[in-house]
Amino acid sequence: MLETDSDSLLQEWLTEQLQATTLRRDLLNEADLRRDSQTFLNALTQAVQVSPALDIDGAQWQEVKAVLAALSKNRATYGFTSSEVATFVFSLKQPLFQRIAAALKESPEKLQSELWSVTVLLDQLGLYTLEVYQRSREDIILRQRQELLELSTPVVKVWDGVVALPLIGTLDSERTQVVMESLLQRIVETESTIAIIDITGVPTVDTLVAQHLLRTVAAARLMGADCIISGIRPQIAQTIVHLGIDLSGVTTKASFADAIGLALTRSGFQVTRQVSRARTP
Amino acid sequence: MERIPILKLGDCLIISLQIDLHDRLALAMQDDLANMVVKTGARGVLIDISGLDMVDSFIGRILGNVATLCRVLDAETVIVGMQPAVAITLVELGVTWDNVRTALNVERGMAFLRLHLDASQAMQTAPEENHDDADAGE
């Protein structure tokens, strides 16, 4: 039946989808919807022809599942909600049921069993679509998390032989690893002897964060670079003293400006203000 | 048995580790270096570990020992060219190397050694000069 009546079925299904209030016209145009629906119907028709078994783990359903997976992934990327994606499959029920009802008017028992099997089948396909949708969303979140991690540790070259790492946000173990690696990597690339770690944007410094900082400093020292920790706010300084954290082996400065000044002095530069000609008598 | 070559450059010794050290090789290097320092009377030792991709706690300790050993024999040691991964590993292992000098690359390491040797030489000769001056004054 899917085969004989496919064109009008497609048309009816499309109308159904287009009328639905959940359709996102801003994200999907009619031509795309038609193409998606057509592809899915074709795959479905083929699968049913091969064998009418209702277990979607069967070999003949591979193609249908592939079509749905692609569609689901695509829509997940474009920002559809999960129910919007699932509705694509579920909305096929209405036109399909009408057809089955019309064809099997004479034998109510057969009608009921047919309807039941179609419902089971479409529900399975819909759930599968949701599963793929969820997985794609998780992938997207994971990727964004990774990108955020890398973005949040920009190592800036301040001067010849001086790099700076402005830290923003709380340091956890995973982030520290990324921070450490990118800082050390940049030290090697730029051949810098001084690295400034600025913690102005770190809201709290507890023992764990301090330990991470000290480890980064130790690693840099092993490679032959000195670290200066700057941007220690009064409250954080109090916390550090209160917690009894030993920062005596590390050069610390209150502000980033002080740290840059020290770094330049240590690398043998001298910064002087140029007296403007107007002021000189 | 393979050995790590030790090169002599003026009053400095240079070791470049191009392959990952296994334990026996590291011990052999320690022995050879001690002998070489005594034989040549070297005042500075530069160990380039830029070719080292991985270290374990034993190698970490051996490198620290080598530096201490050279200090005892009155030679300043500088370890140069450590890869970030190696530095992270050593820190994770808790190796501190309190008395070891490090530098980013061979060039900076040699510059440091030169400076250090010149300074120590100046220190040794300075009192004599003062003495000479005093003699001349009289």
Automatic annotation (TrEMBL), chain B:
PROSITE patterns according to UniProt: STAS
Domain of life: Bacteria
Designated name of the protein: STAS domain-containing protein
Keyword DNA repair: no
Span of domain STAS: 2-126
Entry-linked CDD domains: STAS_RsbR_RsbS_like (cd07041)
Keywords, comma-separated and alphabetical: Plasmid
Record bears the keyword Membrane: no
Pfam families: STAS (PF01740)
Signal peptide start-end: none
